[in-house]
Amino acid sequence: MIRFKIPIFPCTFALVFLCHILSHAQKLDFVERSFKTAAPLYDSLLAKTKGNFKDYPHSLYENGEIKYLQIDEWTGGFWPGALWYMYEFTKNEKWKKAALAWTNSLESNQYNTAHHDIGFMMYCSYGNALRFVNDESYPKILLQSAKSLCQRYSPVVGSIQSWNTRKSKGDINTWRYPVIMDNMMNLELLFYASKISGDTSFRHVAIKHAEQTMKNHLRADYSSYHVVNYDPKTGKVLHKQTLQGFSDGSTWARGQAWGIYGFTTVYRETKDKRFLTTAMKMADYFIDNPNLPSDKIPYWDFNVGQAGFKPDWDYQPTKFKETPRDASAAAIASAGLLELSTFLNGKEKKKYFNAAESILKSLSSDKYLNVDQQNPYFLLKHSTGNLPSDREIDVPLIYADYYFLEALLRYRKIKQS
Ligand code: GLY
Fold first, then answer.
1. Is the pLDDT of residue 291 over 60?
2. Between vectors from CA 299 to CA 383 and to CA 322, what angle results, nearest 5°?
3. Is 147 in the pocket of ligand 1 (CB under 6 A)?
4. 329-364, pLDDT tens digit by residue?
5. Is 252 exposed, middle or buried (0-12, 13-18, 19+ CB in 10 A)?
6. How does residue 1 score in pLDDT terms, banded at 50, 70 and 90?
7. Which of 119, 229, 327, 414 has the greatest count of CB atoms below 10 A from its CB?
8. How far apart, in whole angstroms, are the C-alpha atoms of residue 402 and residue 82?
9. Is the pTM of this model over 0.85?
10. How far is ligand 1, taken at its centre, from the CA of residue 183, in Å?
């Protein structure tokens, strides 16, 4: 009889290796599940918008109809961006074809100087396209977009003006130079423009803007004001208020998420530790907040209805059975936290990575993921756009989908590295 001696060491090694692969695959299950859920939804959204590159899917009305925004409004880049992420994950050419067509539809926006949102519109679309397509017009379009954005920069204020002159909530003040936390998201476009053109002025504007935001939008506990209004002649801070948050002194969840993501981007581009610290402390405020629900998906504002926070609008708590959540804030925060974790080690790395992972697991659960096709088009449920103006409450939002897909891809990349 021939007896085989099975070497114990290689067998144990093979077993450990197999377990590792299996648990790795299990951990990535929710990524796969989310992209699989997205595919038929985006198929029907594409079919619905076929041949029409003028109406950009934004959200849903109460009657289930799609709410579209036009090319000049802030969310046009997210639909092409989401399609690029579908292509990145699946490598299916149909997503690439659609992403290209929707990206190209935004070309005229490179001259848009009506507000600060050009970074969202152009970098989420063309910025993603650059990673897959070698089209020499794209860097030029992005460079022109950066020039348009810089037209809204004032060296006196040291910031890019977000909105044109407008009244504050409740018509209390007139804002002549309002700058909002969201504007941190437009800076990535400027860093890119400096890299491709060699013109450091774009980068300079981005850094100045980030410094002013750090100085004036943050409170001692690294919670954030939504709006800071400056005197355009002197650069003096005149008002610290909110438009979309609960009250001037409260912390609007999406604003805080924009800050986590935006300061992380600025740290990536500058390696200036002040920005890393700011991103970390803003993240700590978000993830350690006693008012963050256990599933880590925030209420639309961290201070809704709390004593000491007085809204400038008619808040009627009885209108809501439960305080609405904002899945978009969670998605943005998770994408930011994942990148933040890549700049850190040990406990800190783990803290932000684990927080992002918990958020993504919640978002990919049946509560938030549109697995049962409650609507035929969007991936995430339960976002809030602008509650004080009674708009987009507990609805899908295209930017929630976009940052969720981005975060899932970031998560997969970190896990696989
Ligand atoms: N940037 C606009 C918003 O977050 O609603």
1. yes
2. 90
3. no
4. 999 999 999 999 999 999 999 999 999 999 999 999
5. buried
6. very low
7. 327
8. 5
9. yes
10. 9
> Which residue's CA is the nearest one to ligand 1's atom 1?
182
Which residues are annotated as catalytic? 117, 182
Residue among 74, 179, 183, 403 to mutate when testing ligand 1 (max atoms within 8 A of CB): 74
Q: Which residue out of 182, 243, 301, 392 has the highest number of ligand 1 atoms within 8 Å of its CB and is therefore the one to mutate?
A: 182
Query: For ligand 1, is residue 182 a contact (CB within 6 Å)?
Result: yes
Residue 179 has phi, psi (to 5 degrees) of -125, 130
Ligand 1 centroid–CA 13 distance in Å is 51
For ligand 1, mutation pick of 244, 260, 387 (most atoms within 8 Å of CB): 244
| 416 pLDDT higher than 80 | yes
User: Cα(162)–Cα(154) distance, rounded to whole angstroms?
Assistant: 11
Residue 97 reports pLDDT greater than 70: yes
**Position 274 pLDDT exceeds 80:** yes
Sign of CA dihedral 14, 17, 19, 25: negative
CB of 254 within 6 A of ligand 1: the answer is yes
pLDDT of residue 22: 43
291-306 burial by CB neighbour count: b if 16+ within 10 A, else e?
ebeebbbbbbbbbbee
CA of 74 to the centre of ligand 1 (A): 8
Place of tokens 């859920």: 37
Q: Ligand 1 centroid to 255 CA: how many Å?
A: 8
| CA 283–ligand 1 middle distance (angstroms) | 18
pLDDT digits (tens, 9 = 90+) for 208-223: 999 999 999 999 999 9
C-alpha angle with apex 93: 92 to 97, nearest 5 degrees? 135
pLDDT the model gives residue 51: 85
Q: Which two tokens stand for residue 316?
A: 């009627």
Residues 83 and 94: their CA atoms lie apart, in Å, by 9
Average pLDDT over the chain reads 95
Torsion of CA 315, 316, 320, 322, to 10 degrees: 70
